[in-house]
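Handout, section 4.2: multi-component inputs.
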Amino acid sequence: MTTTLVVLTVVDIVLLIAGLAVYLFWVGTLLARIAANLEDCAETVRRINVHAAAIVPGVSHINRTGGVVAGALPLLYGMAEEIVVGATYTPPTEARPPARPASGTRRSRLHDAVGFVPR
Amino acid sequence: MSSTDETLWWVAIIAGFVVVLAVAALLSLLIYFVKIIDRRVAGIRETLHDAAENTQHTALIPETAGRVDAVLAEGLQHHLFLGRVLGKVKS
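Output:
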């Protein structure tokens, strides 16, 4: 009986140690993979940060220069208008009539189909 | 070995097996959660890679600013030219 108890005790201890070893190795592998992925994430975030650093100054520059261009265009327009008077397009003030087809109104064949002859 | 000692030993062995089973269950739970973390971190990594691909062309923005400056410089040239010829070509 004592031998059985000793064997069972040893099995118990071995199971505990083996189970701990297997699970810890498994967790260690998974955590190593997670660490590698997180390192990659950190590197990517750093890269995105570097990319994004150019956005605000560049867009501000474009905005500023675009504002100057937009402010200068009426000057050019005014000078061109002074050179060629009357070249400015003036939209028609009257409301345009509805567009009619150049070929006129087409005759409907529905009348022929039912034998109706309009006067 | 007395009967009491034997009984206590059996209790200890059974308690040990219970502990082994509990440890296995808890570690299985830990593995399950760690696997979830692993999967989500992989998803975050993919999303970040996509974001990095989207932002990799921001270097073109300063270049665009330079081109807009060139447009402004050209417009100023036109302005100077029109200012010079305005008095001569008025219709």
